[in-house]
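Two entries, shown back to back:
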Amino acid sequence: MPTTIQLKRGDEADLPTLAEGEPGFTTDTHKLFIGDGAANHEIGGGGSGDVTAASAFGTDNRVIRSDGAGKGVQSSTMTIEDTGDATVTGSISASNLSGTNTGDQTITLTGDVTGSGTGSFAATISDNAVTNAKAGDMSANSIKMNVTGSSASPDDVTIAGITSATPVAGDFVLGMLVTGEIRKYDVDDLPGGGVTEPLISGHVALRV
């Protein structure tokens, strides 16, 4: 008649400290322990998802990770395909990620320049966001204006020797009308010398 050998067994929480070399089996978590007289040491692994002969690769392409207690268990959130493509459920935290946004990740710009989208998308500069400091430098003694006679981008127009000194005979000056228009006059045509358009009272004539 065959002899049946049975190990000390029971629920894991009720497993006593095993003697040195004594085996013990947990009937609820299906783990095998060997004692040393002071502590119980697990042999292999057990339970759903643990690395055992029966369940090491129960789900295709799952990543094996440490459970923090010295066992390898299947990850429930990450898979790696044979092609090398990885799929992760949840957030990824890292300080050295790099690459090109070619998927459906949404990027949102805020501040003076706004826009949102995936891959390539249009951005908008907010109204009144471009200050003089952010504009390009201008040439010395120049004004920004359109001199083409039609709608066009402005140019930096240099006026040689611009000054606010009192003009003298033979000079030309820039005067601003009450309508906001700026005109160039011969100094001899200033008010009192033949100009009929009303200039802004107290304006500064620029000598050119």
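entry 2 starts here
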Amino acid sequence: MPFIGTQPEVGGYSVLDALTASATASYTLQLNSANFVPSSANQLLVSLNGVIQKPGSSFTVSGSTLTFSSALSSSDSIDFIISMGEPLLIGTPSDGTVSTSKIASNVAISTTGNIATTGSGTLTSAGLITASAGVDVNGTEIILDADADTSITADTDDQIDIKLGGADSYHLKATAAHGNGIGIGTSAPLRQLHISNTSANSEIAFTAGTSGQSSLLFGDGLTGTDVYRGYVQYNHQNDTLILATSATSRLTIDDAGRFRVPTVYSSTTGSGANVNVGTDGRFERSTSSRKYKNTIKDATHGLDDLLKLRSVTYKGNNDGDIVFGGLIAEEVHDAGLTEFVQYDDDNKPDALAYGNMVSLCVKAIQELSAKNDALEAKVKALESK
């Protein structure tokens, strides 16, 4: 058949080295004493005992091994084996001439070079793409959803940007002095985790079961209590917040807002009480220095005011059968000694500044002392007559 250009080489038929039958089904194919590997069983023409054998059913080929469907014997004769040549090699297809239907499934590509898409086309796969040696996208955006508004990009050196719903929400980048950081809402994290929202609130949510706990742990090791040397923990079962140091609970706020610091009770002092609790729950240190005061005047109350008060004993509503001694805030208010009364948010008497009432007693004692001095003077005058 005439051709334009170079005649293609087809055929290349070869008679393989003779084989002697024996009590086995498998034989090694050789050509010129070298192992011969055909492309498939269909490439071979095999004659056994004068009968041409059918590839695939009468014999199979694996590598350079030909295996008959059953073992032969020394009385059998392998007449000849002819290789009918390599398939015709075709040149490089013209651009755009190979359709997807002409490409076999499970295609393996072995190359030391690069596989690239150019132009505006895309590389699409309905199955899993596996790259055991890694994938180099060189800063190209990786689209993760159908509308292309969620993606991963590394177009800035040493930084990974994660986009959600069209917004650059997450950023992984080295911080200035604290190692690699994760920025949420910021592309310049200041610490290992930096959450930023300058237009609204920044919040971290912990959600646990009703009998579980939510914790923020501060550790300096990976085992035992080193994992949680300090922690902030919320117990959802009893709605209690705990603050701990040295892996031990130090401060507890219960579901009623009351807080307890157990170690305070064992830390004693000979000094008087100097803490005041305001109606809004704030703590303030009680002071007495002149530098904390203004409009200082001599008090006008005294013995007569003190005599208006009623000293009582009582039991606290939350203290069981313990008996206390003291005064009634409403009675002190009614006596006009409002400077010693502490009022609630409704401006009703609620507590007494017992420490400040020392001034009332001092004034009364001074008046009694003055009266005593006057009486002593009268007695001496009478005695001298």
